[in-house]
Amino acid sequence: MNISKEIETSPKPVQQRTSGAKKRKNKETFEAYLYLLPSLLIFAVFTFFPAIFSIVVSTFRWNMPSPASFVGLENYIYLFTDAIESPIFWKSILNTFYFSLGVPINLIISLLIALLLNRKIRGVGIFRTTFFLPTITSTAAVSVVWLWLFHPAQYGLFNSILISLGLPIQAWLRDPALAMPCLIMMGVWSGMGYNIIIFLAGLQSIPGTYYEAAKIDGANGIGLFKHITWPLLGPTLFYVLTVGMINSLKAFTEIDVMTQGGPLNATNTMAYYLYQNAFQFFQMGKASAIAVLLFILMLLLTWIQFRFVDRSVHYE
Amino acid sequence: MKRNRWFFILVLAVLLLTSCGGSKESKTGGGGKVDSKGNVTLEFWYALGGDSGKAVEELVKQFNDTHPTIQVVATYQGNYTTAMAKVYSAITGNTLPNVAQLGAAPLLGSSGAILSIEDFIKADSSFDKDVIYPAFLDYNTAGGVLWTAPFNNSVPILLYNKDLFTAAGLDPEDPPQNIEELLETAKILTKASDGSGSPSQWGLNARDDTHWYLSTFFLENGAQIVSEDETQVLYNSPEAVEMLQMWSDWVNVDKVMPPNQHQESLSDFLSGKLGMLIGSTSVVSSIQTEASFKVGSAMFPAVGDVHKMPLGGGSLVIFKNDDEQIRNASWEFVKFMISKDSSIYLTAHTGYIPIYKDATNWPEIQAIVEENPLRKAAFDSLPYAVAIPVFSALGNSDLALQNAIEQVELGTASPQQALDDAKTSVDHAIKTQFQVTP
Amino acid sequence: MNNRTELISASTRAKRKMKHRILTILSDGLWYVVVIAIALAVMLPFIWMIVTSLKGPTEVFAYPPTWIPKDPQWSNYIEMWKEAPFGRYFLNSAIVAIAVTIGQLTSCVLAAFAFARMEFKGKNAMFMIFLSTTMISSQVTLVPTYLVMRSLDWIDSYQALIVPFLANAFGVFMLRQSFRTVPRELEEAAKLDGCGRFRFLIQMLLPLCKPILASQALFAFMGNWNSYQWPLIITNQDSMRTLQIGLRYFVSGEGSTQWGVYMAAALVVCLPVIIIYFLVQKTFVESMASTGLKDI
Questions:
Q1: pTM to 2 decimals?
Q2: C-alpha to C-alpha distances, A244 to B187, C105, C220, C288, nearest whole angstrom
Q3: Residue pairs spanning A and C at CB distance below 8 A
Q4: Cα end-to-end span (Å), chain C
Q5: By three-state DSSP, how is residue B72 classified?
Q6: CB-closest option in A119, A144, A295 to C262
Q7: What confidence tens digit (pLDDT) does each residue in B103-141 have?
Q8: From CA A127, how far away is CA C33, in angstroms rounded?
Q9: Which residues have CB under 8 Å from A98's CB, separation 6+?
Q10: How do residues A25-52 score in pLDDT, each as one tens digit?
């Protein structure tokens, strides 16, 4: 997060302008690019070229295996206005934002748990390990497990718990109203560990003397949180929020394993709709148009993040 | 700024290089290898999991054991939808296998990627296609051409839990024959639960290929599915709407079927929480081994007294290949897979039905029915089996129908509205999306 | 603070101490109750996965569900290897994850070295270019990258699973930061001893930066082991599938009823990463906290 700042502070070359030094610098430049070459090659072929090519493909009608033909902005217009297509596309945009609601929920829960864990007490390490376990476990495997937890019959674990509480059973992932909340719930569960670790690091970087000083001034627990923890943790919070939002835009595995975008497109996000168009319907042009729109959305979020980081220099 | 100009030149050069690579037109090569000794290795994709998948693997093994110069490598590609997606992607990616077992395979005829089985049959005097049941040949024909070979075929069927029938005071040997009896029985089998708000036992459910079962009801009620000129689908005829209304009532009015839980229907049935399951004959064998109760089977319920079952299941396709040796080996393999012996093996080890006209007279087939009475319903259905005309846009028609069912079950659309939408969507696809490659 | 406590008499101090201790025990006790409850809730899916993985086909569907399998079916763990080539999936995942880890680390070390230790024309521009790659997500490049693979005839190959991941800008930034902390004097001294730049990197710099290298390797390995979308798209043959994709096809098979075996398979798929995590969790958590990175 502090990368952009460092460019300016990177050591400036010492002012030697003799021809010998120049020659040496040329040689060093050549050598430096040799070091950069492997990374640059990979980036060129697998990042920059595809990014540009994506824009190009998005202006073609390309329904494989038929050949491609140039159609200008037709794919975009089609996505936004076609009588059959556009309701699904709009829904996928809404779903994308709906799914990212999990991020703030995740933040609140993680922060509460981090506050709880931020003390020197026997066994705290074990709990930290426990909370982090879902984060490192493969999403595909975890999704299979949750698919089973959410089984809509009585013998599904969650339903059997509901029954024992005297509540009506639910269809969970098969119910269009509940499917997305279910995915969010699993997302919170699996993403929490990461946020807790970051928050704990943030909390522990706040000098203990601040709290002691405030206690002497008679501040209570809530006051401490409001006047010390919250403002000092703010930048971390915002960082985690934006990174989390960007990541939630990319969510794919859990949707593919658990709902395939259904029921009735209730969990069809832009990322999943892109995949469906490209690799199930083979409409590469339309899929690329969705990719470009998704990219714009991500750039927007990244821009917000960088702007904020610029203003929060004091934190470093 | 000047100093990084050369870098951009470098990047551009790389971009150009890769894009040149990208525009290279794909040859019709496909997979498969011939080594220096003339031994052929074929790639074969299949779309059957579970016990059926094991039977396919066993047949491949038998072929490999008896054909020393041909080696077939089989890969499971997921269900029909996933496997077809993989084939589409392979057509564009030029990574096709040599032979594949797929659902709705004749659709590939218009892709230009496959060779017609008819041509192979014409060139091979040792094979007589007249011994095959005509409906199976229809099922593999598109645009008048026999594109693919019938392999594993099934018809829709009704399965039921005999123990639950007995417990509810029903005669386990007298399953429902038509839609009225079906609903009556389902009502008796549905049991309210101890306050969980949802029945602890459901009367009826269908497997997740719901479009197939709805299409069966369409046909039995006299609805036509595709127009004569094959330019549009006729989902929203009154006969069709009536059937979806009936289906919707099962869920929303009679409450004998859980809404939108077709993916779980088989596990519900196996766990004894479901009285009757509308499914495919293909699962009969595995159900028998997994269920801890007595399973019964019956012909798909009639509408009035009309039985008419659209065939389901998969076919074998041979993909284009430049190498004649590979093409011949592919046909050799397909011929083996649809031979009498293989057909008997597949029938014995899966729920599929034999493709030969006189199969029901073969002692091996009669022995299968005798040993396993569950299989009888499938063979009884054979005279009523028909093939729905297949043409290229039908690729997404399954999804459109499934979507309509999902909508009415979840109450977001009326049957008329849902079928109107499905028709619009499929007709739209016929018009705009699928251009037949010359 | 000292002044205040000194004012309090010995007896009240003792009383207060007593009261304080009781309060501490009470609040600690409450803390443990709350935290253990949350921890159990978090562990629930794992517990249920293990419990189910030992159940037979009938007990899986029993209602009410059992928490201790009546007749533990260890055979589920054997069955999965028979029903799908998990051995092959395992091998593929290992080959790909290890190759990516080594390759990515190499390219990152080289680039980071140039950024941290060398002066060259266009350095800032280069840095911006590296930075910009972090904004282009894999979703955006999915279709074109697939098309590139297709034109290279790389579909269903190890190259396709490995090569696109051989560069990582985040890794470059992390290593660069770490390389810069090594004092310049060391490099000057090495130069005087006739030690070239590359040798300095290999023989002196890398050994000094072992911890960050280890954590970068860990991120690369885990990220790749768990990756899903790209291997899903780029592999067709069973023999090329990785564990995650193998698991997906295994579970989506006909009927989806063998939950005992599915859970056994799910456990086996995530076990390697869990084991590695327990072995190195300290380094892992620390580097995660300091770098603030997740998506690698």
A1: 0.83
A2: 49, 25, 20, 15
A3: 276
A4: 48
A5: strand
A6: A144
A7: 888 878 877 889 999 999 999 888 888 889 888 998 898
A8: 12
A9: A180
A10: 788 888 899 999 999 999 999 999 999 9
When comparing pLDDT for B323 and A222, which is higher?
A: B323
Q: How far apart are the CA of B221 and the nearest CA of chain C, in angstroms?
A: 29
User: Are A282 and B428 in contact (CB < 8 Å)?
Assistant: no
Q: Which of residues 231-270 of B touch A (CB under 8 A)?
A: 258-261, 263-264, 267-268
User: What is the chain B residue with the closest CA to C147?
Assistant: B22
Q: Does B288 touch chain C (CB under 8 A)?
A: no
Residue of A nearest to C252 (CA): A257
β-strand partners of B158 = B278, B298
Per-residue pLDDT tens digits for B67-113 = 999 999 998 888 787 788 788 878 876 788 999 999 888 878 877 88
C-alpha closest to that of C221 among C276, C159, C169:
C276
Residue A195 is encoded by which pair of tokens? 């946020």
Q: Which two tokens stand for residue B196?
A: 């969980």
| Spacing of C-alpha C234 from chain mean position | 22
* Mean pLDDT calculated for residue range C231-258: 84
End-to-end, the C-alpha distance of chain A in Å comes to: 10
Which residues of chain B lie closer than 8 angstroms to A256, CB-CB? none
Q: What share of chain C is helix, strand, coil (3-state, %, to 5)?
A: 75, 0, 25
Classify residue B205 by its DSSP letter.
E
Q: Find, among C255, C77, C61, the residue nearest to B285 by Cα.
A: C255
Which pLDDT belongs to residue B86?
81
B 7-26 near C (Cβ less than 8 A) = 7, 18, 21-24, 26
For tokens 């969010």, name the residue: A184
With a pLDDT cut of 90, the percent of chain B lying above it is 47
Distance from CA of A25 to the nearest CA of B (A): 13
- Facing B270 at nearest CB: one of C233, C253, C257: C257
Nearest CA-CA distance, residue C135 and chain B, Å: 18
ipTM computed for the complex: 0.86
> What pLDDT sits at residue C7?
56
Give me B124's structure tokens: 């091979």
The Cα angle at residue C111 between residues C108 and C114, in degrees rounded to 5: 145
Q: What is the pLDDT of residues C252-291, one digit of tens each?
A: 765 567 899 999 999 999 999 889 888 887 766 666 666 5
- Chain B: give the shortest CA distance to residue C226, in Å: 21
